[in-house]
Known about the structure:
single chain, alpha+beta, Uridine Diphospho-n-acetylenolpyruvylglucosamine Reductase, domain 3, six-stranded mixed β-sheet, 22 strands, tRNA(Ile)-lysidine synthase activity, tRNA_Ile_lys_synt, tRNA processing, ATP binding
Amino acid sequence: MKDPKLTMERSPLGSRFFSSSNTLVVAVSTGVDSMVLLDLLQNLPKLRRPRLIVAHVNHHLRTQSTAEEAFLRAYCRQRNLPLEVAQWAVAEHPAKGIEAAARRFRYSFFATVMDKYQAQAVATAHHQDDLAETVLMKLIRGGRIEQLGALRWQRPFASGALIRPLLALNKQDLRRYAKDHQLTWFEDETNRDLTPFRNRVRHRYLPSLSVENPRLVTALASDAEQINDLLGLANERLGELDATLRTERGFSLAAFRRLSESTQRSYLRYYLTKRGVATIKEEQLHQLVTGLGDQTRPPQSFQLPNQWCLVKGYREAFLKKAGQTAQEGESEGEFVVELGQWYRLRAGGAFSVTRQPDQGSVTTVWLTNNQFPLTCRPVQAGDRLLLKGGTHQRVRRVLIDQKVPRDLRANQRVIVDALGQVVWLVGVKVAWFDRRPGALPVALCQREQ
């Protein structure tokens, strides 16, 4: 058993984020994990204790949500801790995919709080059991090996980082600490519902497998850390390789063909993922490698998910949207926005997102690198637009206020960033993003056809 206090103080995150000169947003649900995290952060040595901002989302998914919010308000008031609370109204809950939608809402709110307080990071209470559950879920479902190392100590987020200070601690360590220090927390009754896959992994599969190896949670967490290290090294090398293969539009076929077949597959995964094509299957990847390597066949296009296609020319291969000409395109459904490319709208006109403003510019927004890639999709229930001052307005309300005819609202599209935040209600209104460190200007353009 580990001492959570000592483990926190020795965390690899400490040298960068645990300082009295820093501001840290702490995501608190009132569950035992987040209450332990909040208590540990408050008890760091004075010189290593950052300014803490508590962030809480009332999802209105359970009857006890109101009591949890009231408890946390009182807790923070007694300890003079700034508290920010967001309400995810029942009317904004989607009929399907509620867990994913809740996560998008939550992390969009955390990013907003970070910007408001100029915080360096958001801290979440993910721990070793969460990491082990994630690894086992990915193994059961299958997929890409990169997903096995999904939970890391830190990753870029909004204008700073998302950090997980409890990853070296397991659930038993946290519960023991909470009881020893007489902390108050709330149990989420839905955690015992075996309908969600994660709950079955947590309460059924992991305990059964732990009979074979009592240290399974630690072993899976160690495996994930090793995978992260290897993936980090691989991405460094692939980034260097990408720089040598890169052409004006894509990559050199001659240089690509000189690589070993395994390196070709690795590079192609890297190239496609970096450009927003992340759902390709291994079978199709093998077909692409074979097709690109065949010098006897003429130029051709390979269809990819989300209306992308990989074009094989005589000297280079490059990505473009299926059915697009060089200057304008026509797209339906959801797709990744290519900077500088024009897209036709079903309701009429066309739009483009570019770093080079032109005569059709609507306005300029300031976006950070981690907000890319941008995605264009139809308006969804619950979409909200960030306003100046940090408040939000529902997109549906914007359309009504702007007197957009009801028959046109069905075809209305939004541009959203990688965090799920609405950047532009195309042709109607632009979100407000403060000019943050590292942000770059992006022009939103529109023209009539």
